[in-house]
Amino acid sequence: MSCCFTPAHPSAAEIEPAAHYRRRRGNMAEAPPPGDRRFLIFFDFDETLVDETSDDMVVQAAPGGVLPGWLKDTYRPSRYNEYMQRVLAYLAEQGVTEPTIRSIVEQIPACPGIPALLRFLQSRPPRDFEVVCVSDANTFFIESWLTRAGFRPLFLRVFSNPAQFDRDGQLQMRPFHSHDCQRCPSNMCKAVVVREYIARRVRERGGRPYQRVFYVGDGANDFCPSLTLSPRDIAFPRRDFPMHRLIQEMAEAQPGKFRASVVSWASGEDVINTLRKVVEERG
Ligand SMILES: [Mg+2]
Ligand SMILES: [Zn+2]
């Protein structure tokens, strides 16, 4: 598989809180300190951090809580991003406002054990874990949820489809990038995001690689990035969700092709237990 990385709106899509950004930015110019053995952990958003698909939750705001049939009929496979743009336009036409959408998103429940997992990561010394979100939802939903939950400062980067409300009160969302991966939806290949991010950060770290990379996800579009992981790394697929099934299918059909270790999870506590061991092993 080859992918070409063409960021459509990199500055809008990679959002960092200003103070956090400046502080980190200052460190980036220098090589990491001796003994820096940082881990990198990626999180998907829908059905991973939150226990729902945020796009589906927002549809609650439509009149009667459902979308009209003519709108649903415009969905085309692998063109989901464009479909969602039409859904957001429809909601705006129906008078659904920013505070309503924000409040629905903020109230989406976290997945079991995810708040504990994020608190565990927060409790570690700052150079232990670099935490990144990569999601095919959109920046407005993710920023709203993470901020409300109090976990926004934990995330060094959020990679998602850039979205903001325009003057007419419509949430305008754009595709994250274009790529040529056949496996992924046209607006986002998370494998490209993960590879480009690691390459850039290793350069910024003076060539020093991460000790290990972790990827926590659930969906079919989390399978592609998990294929980029090395044998030292760990894929955390949500148990019995599509990412997990795809990994199992590959393990049966092509033994040895999937290189990373696999730890399935039903609760964030399962991930914590593995990370605790990994940190202890490192000493
Ligand atoms: Mg997901
Ligand atoms: Zn892909």
UniProtKB/TrEMBL annotation:
Key word Metal-binding present: yes
Q: Which one of the record's GO molecular function terms can you name?
A: metal ion binding
The species is: Coilia grayii
Magnesium recorded as keyword: yes
Q: Which cofactor does it need?
A: Mg(2+)
The text of the family note is:
Belongs to the HAD-like hydrolase superfamily. PHOSPHO family.
Q: In which residues is substrate bound?
A: 55, 136
Annotated active site residues, numbered on this chain, are 44, 46
Under what name is this protein listed?
A: Phosphatase phospho1
Keyword tags: Hydrolase, Magnesium, Metal-binding
Which residues of the sequence carry a binding annotation for Mg(2+)?
44, 46, 218
Query: Pfam families, per this entry?
Result: Put_Phosphatase (PF06888)
